[in-house]
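Need residues for this backbone.
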């Protein structure tokens, strides 16, 4: 799907169903942000094991914040979603933010995007993880309407509902957690869902001072991109095998990767 078509589809849906934005004071809570997972269930398990080891020496309850894009591209989207739907590890709470890939899947489910456009997101791997064959399905269902109906009926309703309920931003007194970034020219209360899950250049290249540290993903890099008021932890896990975690606690940030 072209950027403009994807943007138009998501704008239409988001304008009607704005997503929740959460606020929380994490000053006394060790908080672990996990970058874009993209179907790498194996790396998610390894990252959580590392988090548990790290958190064992820290006091009180801890918080896991996943930054979106759990599905597509990697081989185990279904397993990632099922895992995130389970209770978090003992002693932890978990917040799962929405990414643009979750929203694109819902656009397809709701009829805002075509099958061909959705496949451009790397969603063939998602279908395989749910036991569907994206190469043969169009041969079995030459009618696009029948193909769409079959896929929409086959994907677990509980997984779809879980993705529908995902918030789009977590704001704390000193940190903003979000999938893609924020529009630097707008106050936080005026941010659109579209910008929070899709923005790139206007955020990454802006010289407007950011109001707080923004921890995000969406734009893949070989290594975490560390700036004074911005931290990008999307390290292309589905291809690199490197899923990055940022631990924020007592005004400090500690990074580690699978």
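Answer:
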């Amino acid at each position: 799907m072209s950027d403009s078509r994807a943007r138009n589809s998501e704008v239409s849906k988001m304008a009607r169903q704005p997503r929740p934005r959460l606020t929380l004071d994490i000053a006394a809570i060790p908080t672990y942000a996990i970058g874009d997972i993209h179907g790498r269930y194996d790396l998610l398990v390894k990252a959580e094991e590392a988090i548990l080891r790290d958190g064992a020496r820290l006091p009180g309850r801890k918080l896991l914040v996943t930054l979106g894009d759990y599905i597509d591209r990697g081989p185990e989207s279904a397993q990632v979603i099922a895992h995130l739907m389970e209770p978090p590890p003992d002693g932890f709470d978990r917040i799962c933010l929405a990414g643009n890939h979750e929203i694109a899947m819902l656009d397809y489910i709701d009829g805002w995007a075509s099958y061909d456009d959705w496949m451009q997101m790397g969603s063939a791997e998602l279908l395989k993880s749910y036991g569907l064959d994206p190469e043969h399905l169009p041969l079995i269902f030459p009618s696009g309407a029948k193909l769409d109906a079959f896929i929409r009926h086959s994907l677990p309703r509980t997984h779809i509902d879980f993705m529908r309920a995902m918030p789009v931003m977590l704001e704390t007194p000193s940190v903003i957690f979000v999938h893609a970034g924020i529009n630097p020219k707008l106050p936080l209360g005026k941010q659109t869902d579209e910008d929070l899950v899709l923005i790139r250049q206007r955020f990454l290249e802006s010289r407007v001072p950011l109001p707080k540290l923004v921890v995000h993903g969406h734009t893949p890099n070989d290594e975490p991109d560390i700036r004074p008021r911005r931290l990008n932890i999307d390290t292309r896990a589905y291809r690199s095998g490197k899923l990055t975690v940022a631990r924020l606690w007592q005004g400090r940030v500690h990074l580690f990767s699978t």
